[in-house]
Amino acid sequence: MDFISIRVITADVDRMARFYGQLTNIEAVWSTPDFAEVRTPRATIAIAHAKTLPALTPGTNSSVIVEFLSAEVDEVHARLTATAPDAGPTVVQEPTTMPWGNRSLLLRDPDGNLVNVFTPVTPAAKAKFAQPR
Questions:
Q1: How far is CA 81 from the centre of its chain?
Q2: Containing domain of residue 30, as a range?
């Protein structure tokens, strides 16, 4: 079995696709106006309109973090915050080196979901992510 994607349900697919496209520097691929994907080399973030799953309520996630591996998290932070402070994403935690060896930036996407962008910085963390999966 292979992990392929995570799907975010939202009331504004365009806004979420722009956010994740800006974050990853990868343009979203649209299947319909209600469904877009940002396809990274390892996995995909799928973005679907709330009307595709009416039993779910957008913006209510409080326990899942979407994570992105980055070559340089500090550069991502600088790029995302280079615009006016109110125009960029909400930063929850500035780049911080975590005890397990990743340098981590925590953001909120437009619906308030937590997003972690991280760079392995210790030898053990680098080794963990250097191997193909």
A1: 15
A2: 1-55
Q: Are residues 66 and 108 in the same domain?
A: yes
Domain count, the chain: 2
Same domain, 120 and 75: yes
Q: Whole-number mean pLDDT of the chain?
A: 92
Instruction: Report helix, strand or coil for 112.
Output: coil
Give the gyration radius of the chain's Cα atoms.
15
Do 88 and 67 lie in a common domain? yes
Q: Residue 132 carries which side chain, given as an amino acid letter?
A: P
| Distance (Å, whole) CA 13 – CA 46 | 10
The reported pLDDT for the residue numbered 86 is 67
User: Using a CB cutoff of 8 Å and minimum separation of 24, what contacts does 69-78 make?
Assistant: 69/42, 69/118, 69/119, 69/120, 69/129, 70/117, 70/118, 70/119, 71/119, 72/119, 73/103, 73/104, 73/105, 73/117, 73/118, 73/119, 74/103, 74/119, 76/23, 76/105, 76/117, 77/105, 77/117
Q: pLDDT band at 3, cuts 50/70/90?
A: confident
**pTM of structure:** 0.88
